[in-house]
Write a structure and sequence with these properties.
This protein is an alpha/beta fold. It has 2 domains: 193 residues, Rossmann fold (3-Layer(aba) Sandwich), CATH 3.40.50.300; 54 residues. Helices cover 44% and strands 12% of the residues. A 5-stranded parallel sheet has the order 2-3-4-1-5. Helix 6 links the parallel strand 3 and strand 4. Helix 8 runs antiparallel to helix 9 and helix 9 packs antiparallel against helix 10. The longest helix has 17 residues. About 3% of the residues have low confidence.
Length: 260
């Protein structure tokens, strides 16, 4: 179910990733505002959405949540309601024939009304109601049809997404996708979205992110930060997940020694 502005404020709290990749965020934010704003456009922009690619734990999903919240807050002042729909494999996958295709279509069009009085308003979009759709880890859903991973249902579900993107009214809906493995993604889908390659965090950025995660009153905080610095020096390829595991092990140590 899509999140309203108030729902986004509750769910999308600022986190340790906030403040990075601002150049990408600013571009996405500017385009969303341009497309969703009520002012008459001089030209129609032939645009369907964004594709953010990069290694796991580089902040792709959190970036989109923050830009969606920022856009919703900004447009609220113009009496425009922006909602946010997160889509992952659990949202669509089904063992029943045709069910996945139906769920995907409903994300764009809403459940089919049983009667003319039964419209589901949460999916309704118009000049005052907008929807940002985030397909998280889209490579887990829409495989390249030439890949050995593709199945019979891959063709039908991919075609539905292509059709929905091709007829998308970008003044009412925007699609954003994230991917860790572009090589698995259907090339026809990749070509329909504007690609941004999100770089890994630098070691200095990783240290800042981790320091934000550690409570200032945590026993042994300085020791933990020193451990993180050592880990970064010994493993230049360390990422957020690696360092989070290091922090978790430190918590286990504190609990075992009854220091918490």
């Amino acid at each position: 179910m899509p999140l309203s502005f108030s729902g986004m404020k509750k769910e999308f709290k600022k986190n340790s990733f906030t403040g990075f990749h601002n150049d990408v965020l600013d571009e996405i934010f500017a385009l969303i505002l341009f497309l969703f704003s009520p002012e008459k456009k001089k030209v129609k922009v032939p645009f369907r959405g964004f594709l953010l690619s990069g290694k796991p734990a580089c902040g792709k999903t959190e970036m989109i949540k923050q830009v969606a919240l920022k856009a919703a807050k900004h447009l609220k002042d113009k009496e425009i309601n922006v909602k946010f729909q997160l889509v992952d494999a659990n949202s669509i996958a089904s063992h029943k024939w045709g069910e996945a295709e139906k769920r995907l279509k409903n994300i764009f069009e809403g459940p089919k009304a049983k009667t003319k009085h039964d419209k589901d308003s949460i999916y309704h979009t118009d000049e005052k109601n907008k929807l940002i759709i985030l397909f998280d880890d889209i490579d887990c859903l829409f495989f390249d049809r030439d890949s050995s991973l593709s199945k019979e249902w891959t063709y039908s579900i991919n075609q539905i997404l292509f059709h929905q993107l091709d007829k998308l009214d970008n003044s009412e809906k925007i699609v954003i996708a994230t991917s860790n493995k572009l090589e698995l993604l259907d090339k026809a889908l990749e070509s329909r979205l504007l690609d941004y390659s999100i770089p890994d965090f630098s070691q200095n950025q990783l240290l800042v992110i981790m320091e934000k995660k550690i409570p200032k009153n945590l026993p042994g905080r300085n020791e933990l930060i020193s451990n993180i610095k050592t880990a970064l020096e010994s493993n230049p390829d360390a990422n957020v997940r690696d360092l989070e595991n290091l922090i978790n092990r430190f918590y286990v140590k504190l609990i075992k020694n009854q220091q918490l």
